[in-house]
Design a protein that fits this description.
The chain is an alpha/beta fold. Helices cover 37% and strands 22% of the residues. It is globular, with a radius of gyration of 27 Å. Strands 14, 18, 19, 20, 21, 23, 24, 25, 26 and 27 form a ten-stranded mixed beta sheet that branches. Helix 2 runs parallel beside helix 4, helix 11 runs parallel beside helix 12 and helix 15 runs parallel beside helix 16. The protein has three domains: 197 residues, Polyphosphate kinase middle domain (polyphosphate kinase like, 2-Layer Sandwich); 169 residues, Endonuclease, Chain A (2-Layer Sandwich); 161 residues, Endonuclease Chain A (Endonuclease, Chain A, 2-Layer Sandwich), CATH 3.30.870.10.
């Protein structure tokens, strides 16, 4: 078969993933307020897709790379396909939004515009505009400008037409930035009886356009929301006299002026105003101009106010304690006795923070080393590290300055840590540090003892509330000694290490994964049971996909749980008939990477920071760790089995990208995330109390 028949284009597969997010907004079994949030997530995802992926395609077109292909697709043709899919999804989005508005009405909740206000609400909106909005407006009159004003990424604007019919036909255009960075997008209006009302900030401004332009003698106003999305790629300065931090800082500042990659507008906009904007923005045939509805920047709907009560939200699933960490004893002591696996958001992320806090004040602890890719805005992780440095621990932090969209935050925290004497490393030139590692060194007499943390996700307490990730805490010397080697490599890049236990990219992970697959192929050829179960976010790397095809052709049974991009095509006779794939989108974002290999019925387990993408395997520092503890192996297998049995939120991944829900009426209902939560809650509730438990 030709390659394009065996590989699905990654951009189109990503759009299929975002369609699954849109399905959650359309799923009437989800609470109404949560469905609105999924509209926001869909919109935010699409923004990032255009900033990164579409921007990359447009750069290829601009560079006249006409012979280049992106997994079998020429850039121009791929861009056209993306446009078609996005327009289709946007139309579905509008239909779902309209349906949600109707369902909100059944709960006496109404989102109204400026033409639907009662007298009392109109007075409220006028006062709100005068008190809160007017002083925050940035308004530009366009008629006499030599150059069209710069439109900021992430912002939305009201493109406004001011006109009068008498004494003669006159009009003028203006641009108003909607101040969503300083004011809420949604304003709760006075209720009428049991009916509750919300108006968008856009419509508050529309209602008061006469006041906003009171110095002019115009009598008629039309206003339409527009939005521009810009290329998010950083332009890294090659000036050798500047530090890497300075180069990144300059690149972040320059990103604000990135090339426009998408222009969305209200399709009801008057023809003359749209023509003026197109000409002023100088868009060409390859630029994405997408008609839409009355409102844009639906990412704000992730913060939609729930004024309908708890019944419109998911039932709460508060994180539970880990069985071995229920009491107030030392976490380091607990890890000394046995490996511990933390699974967020089902279990408390505060366990990890408390581990750092303990290390910061424990007199036996001499050093703490950690990799940081993304951290929370008010990071308790950073606070614990600062406290450790103030307690004269040797603190080494490997900060990835090129973590997309978090560069500014990482620069800020790097400087804060440096101020207290922490040693800051900015990774390795040409390689992003995406591994999630912690190493604590304690001394007892003349002996050193290592404690390691290896995670599938960032050390980020905000993400830990919504991302499913696992963190292994271990004092196993086989693993801790190799984590120590990785940190030594960060500081001494000229050194070369071999790893017998960890899978470390870019030097070793790809080959070791191939060896694990070859091992299954060998067993299958010998007539023995052979299988792999891979829970992962993205499967894109062509070589790894063809390796999985080879395994399938040799009789290896492969089950994939792929949340996002799946460029592999399952279930094709003669190619991948032994491969099944499902995708789960639900309340929490599936983010953990867990690999299980049959290994002649002596299963091997790994958790990993890496997806199977070329960048993860070849141009990033990633770490996958084996799981040796039998109890944790069983725990991971139980969780994976829930997902394989899911017949509520699992979709079948196939070559048509149809996202059909996996339904099995003959099997008991299995909602994997709910089953997982109940699993951990039962472990915690049924734990035998130990001294110190409350």
């Amino acid at each position: 078969m030709k390659e394009q028949k065996t590989i699905i284009n990654r951009e189109l597969s990503w759009l299929s993933f975002n369609e699954r997010v849109l399905q959650e907004a359309d799923d009437k079994s989800n609470p109404l307020a949560e469905r609105i949030k999924f509209l926001g997530i869909f919109s935010n995802n699409l923004d990032e897709f255009f900033k990164v992926r579409v921007a990359n395609i447009m750069r290829m077109i601009d560079l006249k790379m006409t012979n280049s292909k992106i997994l079998g697709e020429k850039p121009e043709k791929l861009l056209s396909k993306i446009q078609d899919v996005v327009i289709k999804l946007q139309k579905r989005f509008e239909l779902i939004y309209t349906e949600i508005l109707k369902e909100l009405a059944t709960h006496n909740i109404f989102i109204i515009d400026e033409k639907q206000l009662s007298d009392e609400q109109a007075t409220f909106v006028k006062l709100y505009f005068e008190d809160k909005v007017q002083s925050n407006l940035s308004t530009i009159m366009l008629k006499n400008l030599d150059k069209f004003p710069y439109l900021k990424d992430k912002s939305i604007y009201l493109a406004t037409k001011l006109s009068r019919k008498k004494p003669k036909q006159e009009f003028e255009y203006a641009l108003i930035e909607i101040p969503t960075t300083v004011l809420p997008r949604f304003i709760v209006l006075p209720s009428i009886g049991e009916k509750k009302y919300i108006i968008l900030l856009d419509d508050v401004i529309r209602y008061n356009l006469g006041d906003a332009f009171s110095i002019f003698n115009y009598t008629h106003f039309e206003a339409f929301v527009i939005k521009l999305t810009r290329d998010a790629e950083l332009d890294i300065d090659n000036d050798l006299s500047k530090s890497f931090l300075e180069k990144i800082q300059k690149g972040v500042f320059g990103r604000k002026k990135g090339q426009a990659v998408r222009f969305v507008y209200d399709q009801q906009m008057s023809a003359d105003l749209l023509k003026y904007l197109k000409k002023s923005l100088d868009f060409d045939q390859y630029d994405s101009m997408l008609p839409g509805g009355r409102y844009h920047n639906f990412k704000d709907f992730m913060s939609f106010p729930n004024i309908g009560g708890f019944e419109l939200q998911y039932e709460p699933t508060p994180a539970v304690c880990h069985v071995k960490l229920k009491n107030n004893t030392s976490i380091l002591d607990a890890v000394s006795k046995q490996d511990i696996l933390l699974h967020y958001p089902y279990q408390k992320f505060s366990h990890f923070i408390n581990l750092l806090r303990e290390a910061a004040i424990n007199p036996d602890v001499k050093s703490i080393k950690i990799t940081l890719y993304r951290v929370a805005t008010n990071s308790k992780i950073i606070n614990a590290l600062i406290n450790a440095a103030r307690n004269e621990k040797e603190v080494t932090v490997v900060v990835e300055l090129q973590a997309r969209f978090d560069e500014k935050s990482n620069i800020y925290w790097s400087r804060k840590l440096e101020e207290v004497g922490a040693k800051i490393l900015f990774g390795i030139p040409g390689l992003k540090v995406h591994s999630k590692l912690l190493l604590i060194t304690a001394k007892s007499g003349t002996r050193s003892k290592f404690y390691a943390g290896i995670s599938t996700g960032n050390f980020h307490e905000g993400n830990a509330n919504v991302y499913t990730d696992v963190t292994l805490l271990t004092a196993n010397k086989k693993i801790t000694s190799e984590v120590d080697k990785v940190f030594d490599y960060f500081e001494n890049t000229y050194k070369y290490y071999n790893y017998n236990h960890l899978l470390v990219s870019p030097q070793f992970m790809r080959n070791k994964l191939v060896n694990l697959i070859d091992n299954e192929i060998k067993f299958a050829r010998e007539g023995k049971e052979a299988y792999m179960i891979l829970k992962i976010n993205n499967v894109v790397d062509t070589a790894m996909i063809h390796k999985l095809y080879q395994a399938s052709q040799n009789g290896v049974k492969i089950k994939l749980i792929v949340r996002g991009i799946c460029a592999l095509i399952p279930g094709v006779k003669g190619l991948s008939e032994n491969i099944e794939a499902v995708a789960i989108v639900d309340k929490f974002l599936e983010h953990s990477r867990i690999f299980i290999f049959c290994n002649n019925n002596n299963e091997k387990y790994y958790i990993s920071s890496a997806d199977w993408m070329t960048r993860n395997l070849d141009t990033r520092i990633e770490v996958a760790s084996p799981i040796y503890d039998p109890a944790i192996q069983k725990e991971l297998r139980d969780i994976i089995d829930f997902q394989l049995k899911d017949n509520v939120k699992a979709r079948i991944v196939d070559q048509h990208q149809s996202n059909i829900y996996k339904k099995d009426k003959s099997a008991p209902i299995c909602h994997s995330q709910l089953e997982t939560y109940n699993y951990y809650k039962a472990l915690c509730d049924n734990a035998i109390p130990t001294k110190g438990d409350k």
